[in-house]
Amino acid sequence: MKKVILLFIILFTITGCYDYQELNDRAIVSGISIDYINEEYIVNYEILNNLKSDEPENKAYMVEGSGETIVEAFQDASDSISKETYLSHLKVLILSEEAAKEKMRDIVDYMLREPYIRNIFSPVIAKDVTAKSILGSTDKETPVVSEKIETMIANNKYNENISLKIDFDHFMDQFEDDRIDPSLTAIELVDGKPALAGIAIFDDGKLKDILNPELSAIFKVLNNDSSNHSLKIPCENKTNGYTIINLYKNKNTDLEIKDDTLNVKSKLNAGVLKDSCGLNFRDGTIYEELSTKFEKNLKEEYQTFWNYITFDDTDILGLRKKYYQKSRQELPNWKDLKLEMEVKITINKNGKTFEVRNNE
Fold first, then answer.
1. How many CB atoms within 10 Å of residue 193?
2. Which of 28, 108, 309, 342 fits 48 for a cystine, CB–CB 3.0-4.6 Å?
3. How distant, in Å, are the alpha carbons of 6, 9, 19, 331 from that of 13?
4. What is the per-residue pLDDT for 350?
């Protein structure tokens, strides 16, 4: 019996050493960028460096491949590495606007068919720059760009509430659904560093548009995906002064299509973030007045967003899908819907809640 136990210990020990050694012999890919330039795919891998180093910039390095097809480009990138390419650790896939407009279906098809890639990575769109330039924007503060992007998307205090935490599987559910226009996070370079740029929208299998940060933030409120959103109104009797409230942890906006009308109903919590108007916040009526003003302010933002997406013919809210799920019928033309809004804001201060209903 003792011999059997000893044998099992030896086997597990040997297996562990073998797996560790095997991992060291692999090139672990953390990020991939894909550009499409002059009818050629350019693929870059961000590879984690297995060698121990005290220098942050040595934590990762890049290799490049190219080809007329996506398969050739990936193979060329892999062939340039002496180690075996390990793709199961992939965290971020960055696509240039050109690649997302011209070759999106080919790219997602390849990523789905590649057996060594797990579909839990985050696809993003590079705005106004090549995907390679974003993946290569390393410095001492950002030695591994894919990890930085993953953090920006996941952590609200960095992303100004304009990112979407969507993995490849979730994106493909949208991409294959004819009743919704899919969306992804867009990334840009600001002073040479990756930053969130807004929300990219797809239609008919290709990139169509990128919402600016303001529209992206409103989309997240309407889509019940907002952790915080700030509203700002000017002072009535003070030049250059303003009051700001923050809508936080709001998951209570309902979109209902009835007859020829889209009814938007929002019940939102808020707190006063900043005031330079000299308001007396000991007076409860101040909160009532602020709620009325901010409700009107939010309605205006909703209307601006609605005007934009109807003009752009972008059903990013998935109204066709919502209508079909409820009625099992197709929505004739979502852009012709009339917009009706009902907004209620609850402002909290010092443990006391001042609740004001919209009476308009």
1. 15
2. 28
3. 11, 6, 10, 61
4. 54
Q: Decide: 249 and 269 in contact? Cβ < 8 Å.
A: yes
The residue count of the chain comes to 360
**Rounded distance, CA 349 to CA 107, Å?**
50
C-alpha to C-alpha distance for 129 and 195, rounded to whole angstroms: 12
pLDDT grade, residue 55 (50/70/90)? low
Reduced 3-state DSSP string for the chain: CHHHHHHHHHHHHHHHHHHHHHHHCEEEEEEEEEEEECCEEEEEEEEECCCCCCCHHHCEEEEEEEECCHHHHHHHHHHCCCCEEECCCCCEEEEEHHHHHHCHHHHHHHHHHCCCCCCCCEEEEECCCCHHHHHCCCCCCCCCHHHHHHHHHHCHHHHCCCCCCCCHHHHHHHHCCCCCCCEEEEEEEECCEEEEEEEEEEECCEEEEEECHHHHHHHHHHCCCEEEEEEEEECCCCCCCEEEEEEEEECCEEEEEECCEEEEEEEEEEEEEEECCCCCCCCHHHHHHHHHHHHHHHHHHHHHHHHHHHHHCCCCCCHHHHHHHHHCCCCCCHHHCEEEEEEEEEEEECCEEEEECCCC
Rounded to the nearest 10 degrees, what angle do helices 284-312 and 213-222 cross at?
110
Indicate if the pLDDT at residue 295 is higher than 50. yes
What predicted TM-score, i.e. pTM, was given to this entire model?
Answer: 0.86
Is the four-CA dihedral 49, 51, 57, 61 of positive or negative sign?
A: negative
